[in-house]
Specification:
By secondary structure, the chain is an alpha/beta fold. The N and C termini lie far apart (40 Å). It has a 5-stranded mixed sheet. The mean pLDDT is 95. It contains 5 helices and 5 strands, in the order βαβαβαββαα.
Length: 122
Amino acid sequence: MSTVALTAADFEKTVTGNDIVLVDFWASWCGPCRMFAPVYERASEANADIVFGKVDTEAEQALAAAANITSIPTLMAFREGLLVFAQPGALPPQALDQVITAVRELDMDEVRASIAAQKSGE
């Protein structure tokens, strides 16, 4: 599966309607974004069970602001609708593969329990 462009209109539905969603926040003028794009595209082709979304921060400024994007590229990973990873910077292929493996191996019951514990402690 290749990457899909995400907008404010379909972002939440995509994130909540799929098991694993990676999102690349990028802009056409951003050099590191252009270097990361082929790495991200290859990973999308190698992992057909994951949705690889891309958000153009120029076209989707409100969505980028809502996601607290302050640096691009920024990669976010969602699992079962929950944000489980967010990091600015272009990742080399091996690091992206490590993120994908880590997200796949997450114990989501443990993640939800940790989030609940954090919320109850606030």
